[in-house]
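dude i think i finally got it to work??
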Amino acid sequence: MFTESLGKDAVTIRSSQLPRTIQELAARAIGRATASVLRLHRISVFVGLLFAALASPARAEIELPVASPQSSIHVRADGGRRWKQGEYDVWHLQGNCEIRQDQVVGRATEAVLWVDRASPHSGQPTKAIVYLDGEVTVEHGGGSSTGGDATNGASLTGRTWLGRFYTLRSLDFDVPLAGGEPAAKPAAFDRGMDARTQQ
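look at this
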């Protein structure tokens, strides 16, 4: 009767192949796990950056072109305070705030303005740094051009907005004043200062 027998080296070959196969399987598993960890890391970094960008309350969120400095600036609100900070007249406005220059109109529940008035007859524009806070809408309206064709306007909304207005004409305020500089600065003032330093 014929019996199949294996040579003495057969067992050695098989046992030497076995650790190599385990090593290959382990290497593949580690490679897949490393790739998964890297993908998960990339996703978590992206999500973290996205949340950081969305959660920054001090950063001004919307921008539109400024109006012509040949137009006056009109400001109105339900009430406000006014004080001096260095070269600026600071206005803290509350309730139905509106800043209008030509076709640019900004509205918010609260606003802070830093106004640097130019000397009369200097030829330099008066500058208003405007921080709008809460239910902000900024419009750059379309006007009627020749023949009744209307140019398209833009309207953006957000939580905050920081912009600059310049005028060679007047800067008018229709705001009942409740007093001067408060003992504790309003939170909107602090957020506006933060937004200014981030620019």
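The helical segments are 8-55, 187-198.
im so relieved honestly
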